[in-house]
Amino acid sequence: MRTAEIVICGAGIVGLTLARELVRRGHSDILILDKEPDIGRHASGRNSGVLHAGIYYAPGSLRARSCLEGNRLMQDYCREHGLPLEQNGKVIVARDESELPGLRALFERAQQNGAQVELIDERRLAEIEPLAKTAGQALHSPRTAVVDPKAVLASLRRELTDSGKVSFLFLARFLRRLGPRLAETTAGRVGYGFFVNAAGAYADRVAHAFGLGLPYRLVPFKGVYRKLQGPRADLVRGSIYPLPDPRNPFLGVHFTRGVHGGVYLGPTAIPALGRENYGILAGIDAEAPSILWRDAVLFAKNPKFRSVALDEPRKYFARRFFEDARRLVRELEPADVVPSPKAGIRPQLIDLRSHELVMDFILERDQESLHVLNSISPAFTSSLAFATMLAGELRA
User: Fold this and answer.
1) DSSP state of 314
2) Cα–Cα dist 193/138, whole Å
3) pTM for this prediction
4) Between helices 379-395 and 13-24, what is the axis angle to 10°?
5) Are residues 87 and 147 in contact, defined by beta-carbon separation less than 8 angstroms?
6) Nearest-5° Cα angle at 146, 279 to 11
7) Residue 180, Cβ neighbours under 10 Å: how many?
8) What backbone phi and psi angles, to 5 degrees, belong to 392?
9) pLDDT by residue for the chain (396 residues), tens digit each?
10) Is 317 exposed, middle or buried (0-12, 13-18, 19+ CB in 10 A)?
């Protein structure tokens, strides 16, 4: 049986940065377990690499409180460790004049969060992003940056391993809580002084084993990407985003130039049939009927989910995806957009009591455990700042 002072379930960005913060605070016996054979196999290693800059989130929320500082800390971390980083900014455009009031409201929210943003006109937009178009005004976020998520994760793993205070147990899926400070995994029993659940798409299942987070369930949404090729790709300098629908937590299909030069379009937010349903059929498992049932209830009772469920699956088709992307730019041809194998799953928390999509990180705890639920975007951006909040919770 493995034992440790602190056991962290999940070797994604939240688990790794928390372990780093705990080492910095003097902890010396930390075990990170994961059901996969390596770190960051899911959301942490499959995201777009964008470091967000505090624009979208409700003032005072955990997402808002951690995003800006997380952006700064992650940029500093990449510079310190020589990791790929580009502070190439982002513009948010209005697709037609009806979106201008929403754009100005988003500007005000960003200012409340302390974000560095400005409203710009079409002439200034053309200077910043030559391919982008807008209906009169756009929002510019110069602090938005991009990183290589896998490089960040690998660096964190090296740092933790080199500390001599953190060990890893892979192929260790959490199965159940056996009793006080004892859990069973597929790699054997694990004893702990304190348990942290950073299991991402499976965090609700782990929390339920502790009798916590019972009103919540995670519902998976699939993010499919495509790639921009040809001379128009050269015109994209940073990121071009649409004004998001404030009724749901998804940001819409957008253009992003990554740190290695490629320009990706996406992701979609298609209701998925499995927590690892990255392909059309791949990743669909025995949980699919219960996911379908939850989706059906949400479809009936939640107009916001209903709009997503009706619109997003159409983006599986190249033509519909293209039409969505074309509204953000001056010119685009179908031949400019090609398939990409890149795909991810966003595990979105649902409150079963209200049938609402939860819009913030959720923390649940008892005397021996802390559970991080709904670690959605900007979790990667926020992670280094969020880790200090979580480490403080361990002392509470």
Assistant:
1) G
2) 51
3) 0.96
4) 50
5) no
6) 55
7) 8
8) -65, -35
9) 999 999 999 999 999 999 999 999 999 999 999 999 999 999 999 999 999 999 999 999 999 999 999 999 999 999 999 999 999 999 999 999 999 999 999 999 999 999 999 999 999 999 999 999 999 999 999 999 999 999 999 999 999 999 999 999 999 999 999 999 999 999 999 999 999 999 999 999 999 999 999 999 999 999 999 999 999 999 999 999 999 986 677 888 999 999 999 999 999 999 999 999 999 889 999 999 999 999 999 999 999 899 889 888 888 889 999 999 999 999 999 999 999 999 999 999 999 999 999 999 999 999 999 999 999 999 999 999 999 999 999 875
10) exposed
**Residue carrying structure tokens 């953190």:** 166
Structure tokens at 264: 């990706």
Distances (CA, A) of 144 to 5, 75, 348: 37, 10, 23
Phi–psi pair at 218, nearest 5 degrees = -95, 135
Encoded tokens for 366: 């008892």
